[in-house]
């Protein structure tokens, strides 16, 4: 009977120890499951945050690209306006120079005509006064 009580005592001790190990294992498993759930939630939140940041970055890039395009168009439009104004101004100046050239040419022609006329009148006066003989042939 001693052997029997010893064996039963050993089995009881073994059963209690095994039960303690099983309970300890289940508690650890429970903690790991909770930790896993917590990590999964954290990963999910991080993914959502990354997606949110990605969308925000894409929106900012799109907006920046749109602003750059608008600035580029504005600059090109201003360059075109300045270029058009410069061409118009150059054409006006060329036309003014041409008109001035025509006016100067007309004035010079008028002065030359006046000089010829004055010279002719002086020569005619000298010829008529008799101080110089005409080289023109007199009709017979």
Can you walk through the features of this model?
It is built from 1 helix and no strands. The protein is mostly helical and 140 residues long. 0% of the residues are buried.
Q: Number of DSSP strands?
A: 0
**Strand content of the residues, in percent?**
under 5%
Total number of helices: 1
Unreliable spans: none
| Oligomerization | single chain
Largest sheet: none
Give helix and strand order, one letter per element, not per position.
H
Which helices and strands appear, and what pairs or packs with what?
Blueprint: H1 2-129
Key structural traits:
mainly alpha; 91% helix; single chain; rod-shaped; 140 residues
Short synopsis of the structure:
The chain is an all-alpha fold and 140 residues long. 91% of the residues lie in helices and 0% in strands.
């Amino acid at each position: 009977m001693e052997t029997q009580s010893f064996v039963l005592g050993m089995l009881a001790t073994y059963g209690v120890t095994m039960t303690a190990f099983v309970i300890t294992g289940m508690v650890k498993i429970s903690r790991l499951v909770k930790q896993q759930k917590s990590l999964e939630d954290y990963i999910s939140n991080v993914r959502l945050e990354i997606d949110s940041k990605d969308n925000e970055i894409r929106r900012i890039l799109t907006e920046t690209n749109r602003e750059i395009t608008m600035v580029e168009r504005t600059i090109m439009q201003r360059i075109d306006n300045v270029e058009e104004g410069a061409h118009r101004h150059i054409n006006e100046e060329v036309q003014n120079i041409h008109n001035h050239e025509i006016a100067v040419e007309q004035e010079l022609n008028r002065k030359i005509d006046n000089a010829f006329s004055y010279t002719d009148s002086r020569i005619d006066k000298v010829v008529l006064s008799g101080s110089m003989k005409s080289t023109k042939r007199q009709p017979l």
